[in-house]
Design brief:
alpha/beta, TIM Barrel, eight-stranded parallel sheet, two-stranded antiparallel ribbon, 12 strands, 14% strand, binds glyoxylic acid, binds magnesium ion
Length: 368
């Protein structure tokens, strides 16, 4: 909240008649945010069949949509939003969009078209290339004006992509810039370009970014630098994801991994998603239906983790003190971690019957 603003003003609508801002962003499962190009008839045709099979469908208007197709994509999204049963507005699958960047000639028309036409269906607007709180303030006020005009009774939430160096430097103020802020995604491709990183990929690791085992020392005490040594590839995105997770947690909003461009490499994709999950992210983007399955697997706690978490919770009684389980000390802090897992499992079980069956099959007192 800017210092010049009263705390009381922060939750007042930014336009007369706009819906009251939320004081908390409710958790809604969003393990996979599946991107589609609404101007691509083949992709658009698959959307009705995907409702109920993925947590979020996102109509992409920005990068990956050709300049000549920007209007068709916007209009296609309006059609899909109006005609697709169960999409958005509390249906089983949320409807999000990624608008064009605020410095493009299309962003304003994106918002002024989408909000009156499908504002009652749109859950979240993803804003790319966010540089600082000023970008969120611009979208915040504009959305309030459009919501008031359209007579909407629920605020549309805002999600920022972290994909500029300045955005990373301002990440905390971006997360706290508006009560609409729902979350952040890592945008590794644009971020790499903006930082002048020397990579050419969309997300994922790089074989050149590594550490090497120390050289063996020969009998004269000389380091054998040419000897074979194990190398360990490092994660180029660790720093940014960790910062993003802290900034989101601090502001009660949700962090996400972004795109993983090597669609064929499902194994490395799963690793990258899992690193993000372990660090605190709640979901990721999916660029191809096969990444939806990976995201659902990775961003749902495993049966083993849930069994262990429930067992710790049962053993910890009132939640204070310490117990020994399998030779390991558990205390208030490990219990809190376990409760994060148990809560998430419950929230996901409520919308995913397969997961519910798997979690329900865990014997109570498992392994005790
Ligand atoms: C996503 O938009 C990216 O730039 O990685
Ligand atoms: Mg980008």
């Amino acid at each position: 909240m800017p210092a010049s603003q009263s705390a009381k003003d922060f939750f007042r609508p930014l336009a007369v008649g706009a819906p009251t801002p939320l004081t908390e962003i409710p958790f809604r499962p969003s393990r996979a945010i599946h991107f589609f190009d609404p101007s691509n008839a083949k992709m658009a045709g698959k959307i009705p069949g995907m409702v109920g099979t993925v947590d979020v469908l996102l109509g992409n208007l920005e990068d990956a949509v050709k300049a000549d197709n920007k209007v068709a994509a916007r209009e296609g999204l309006v059609r899909i939003g109006q005609e697709t049963e169960g999409l958005g507005a509390g249906g089983p699958t949320q409807l999000w969009t990624r608008i064009n960047s605020l410095d493009s000639p299309w962003a304003l028309d994106d918002l002024t078209t989408l909000v009156p036409a499908i504002g009652d269906r749109l859950d979240v607007v993803m804003v790319p290339k966010v540089q600082g709180a000023e970008d969120i303030h611009y979208v915040d006020r504009l959305l309030a004006q459009l919501e008031a005009k359209a007579g909407l009774d629920r605020p549309i939430l805002v999600h920022a992509i972290l994909e500029t160096a300045r955005g990373v430097a301002n990440v905390e103020e971006i997360c706290g810039a508006s009560p609409r802020m729902q979350g952040l995604s890592l945008g590794p491709a644009d971020l790499a370009a903006d930082r002048r990183m020397k990579t050419t990929r969309v997300g994922g690791g790089h074989p050149g970014y590594l550490v090497r085992q120390d050289p063996p020392i020969d009998e004269l005490g000389v380091a054998q630098v040419e000897a074979p040594r194990t190398t360990y590839q490092q994660d180029l995105w660790h720093y940014t994801i960790a910062r993003m997770v802290d900034a989101c947690a601090m502001h009660g909003i949700y962090p996400y991994y972004g795109p993983f461009g090597d669609i064929a490499d499902t194994v490395a994709c799963e690793d990258q998603f899992r690193n993000a999950f372990l660090l605190g992210c709640v979901g990721t983007w999916s660029l191809h239906p096969k990444q939806v399955a990976i995201a659902h697997r990775v961003f749902s706690p495993s049966v083993e983790d849930v069994a262990h978490a429930r067992r710790v919770a049962a053993a910890m009684g009132d939640g204070t003190g310490a117990v020994m389980l399998d030779g390991k000390m558990e205390d208030d802090a490990s219990l809190k971690q376990c409760l994060v897992m148990v809560d998430l499992a419950e929230q996901l079980a409520a919308i995913d019957p397969e997961l519910k069956a798997a979690y329900d099959a865990i014997p109570s007192g498992e392994g005790a």
